[in-house]
Amino acid sequence: MKTASATQQNKKFTKRILIEVIIAIVILAPTIYLCVNLKQIIINRVLKVVELKPNSEGYQTWLSPPTTITRGYHLFNITNPIEIATDPSPTTIRLKETRAYHYHLDATKQHVHWSNDNKALSYSIYRVFTRHSTKFEPSAVNDTGIYVDLIRAIFRTQFGKKPAQTFFDMGGMNVFNYGNSIQQLEGFTTELFNTVREKMTGPNTAKSGFIYRYNGSRSYNYTIRSGLMEKGQVLSFASENVPFTIPSPDTYPVTIYDGLTFVPMLFDKPYMHIFQADFCRPITVKFNRILSMFGGIDVHEYVIKFIDLQQCTNVSDINTCPELDKIDVSQCISATLPENTVFLSKPHFYGSKNETMEEMNIDGFTPTRDEHEALIYFEPYSGTPLRAHHRVQLNIDATIDPMRQSEYGSDLEPTKQRGVKRLIPLVWIDQEVNVDDATIGKLRFVHLALRYGKIVLLIAAIVLIILIIGILEYFARRVARNERSQRAGNPKDNRLM
Q1: Which of 375, 330, 326 is nearest to 355 (CA)?
Q2: pTM
Q3: CA 280/CA 312 separation, integer angstroms
Q4: Nearest CA among 205, 203, 323, 331 for reference residue 279
Q5: What is the pLDDT of residues 406-415, one digit of tens each?
């Protein structure tokens, strides 16, 4: 009788073990499949979200990006203008940087038109600058300084090394001008400006100012590719401010991006060439390193490089291209400017060669990486720039006509000597771009899922298996205990067995 009971119990035990093994397989099989394919599943979801198609989630994000843009303008106040004017060649230019004047930049995309096959789209950029609500200090409106008279410096390029008296009658005696700092940005007028104003192009010509010229107007028109892995590639470009265009994607020997549309999967992109519409030329950004930021996102840090694409030994490898301390952007400032008049550099000429610094002979530059290097932090899967510091500096190679103190007072008068070229900084700009917390939270989840997802899935599967098996074992043992109790309480039944 005991043998029959034991045999029945063994069958139940074997059946229970078989059920538990099947349960474990049913849970583990899809878990292992998910673990093997988890990375691709997550990446596919990210790519689906950033896909640029009409009425897609990616299109809505592109149209209204979740970013805030702040620009800090730093002017250069010349502290020894008379010394420079009277002896321009050997005199050290001494300058003092102003405090930062912060503005909020609202850039909107308008007039969006898709191509018939939805593989390209055209759009215009409108920009509005307003004083930053918290960072712009109210007392800044009273700041004054001595700055390069940009209008006069540009006007001077139309004359030879020894200008006629007509030039001085119209432009005055000094390349420097005492004025209000904020007006240098938001707009001011002079007698010379009113004279040359009719030759200016662009939407805002009533005043001169680094911000005024671009504020509240349609600035640029782009046509770009919209395919997932090629979105943002520039097909054509036209500026509303100066007669500059990119008529076709073959204008440059490399692929150019618009800087407002970002391609995903940056793992095979050690560098990108991003068009800077304000300066009518592409700027190269190069991968520098991987950093963990924003609570667990492995961002790719890119830095700006000024390179000469025309001098590359191999244009597909920027390491073969000469790196420059400054690049010519004259034609984007004024169509009448000769080449090599206005230059773009890194702020305070950060990273420039010692020879360049010595040749400029400027006292007042204090370049540091934290304050003056241009850095962009991309989330590599979506291509989203989570934070960026676009830092650039405008400089003018101004012709300074040697002056002397007038015998009749403190005014200056020309000496009739040849003009001397001196590279003088005008302003440097720190454009900071930040993505909102909601977007950072979503991308943080992506990185945490990629980093720990497999472990979490396996632990969850094992815990679930243990839990289910534990429940089965609990009820199986309870049933067995009840059966033993019944047999112990009914000896007659035991005898019949």
Answers
A1: 326
A2: 0.89
A3: 20
A4: 331
A5: 877 778 888 8
